[in-house]
Amino acid sequence: MKIRIDKHGQLWIERAGRMKACRCRFGGRNNAGIFDTCDDDCPLFREPEVINLKTAKGEIAPGDNRKVLQLRCGAGVCWFGEIIDERVKP
Question: Which terminal CB of the chain, N or C, has fewer other CB atoms within 10 Å?
Answer without folding.
Answer: C
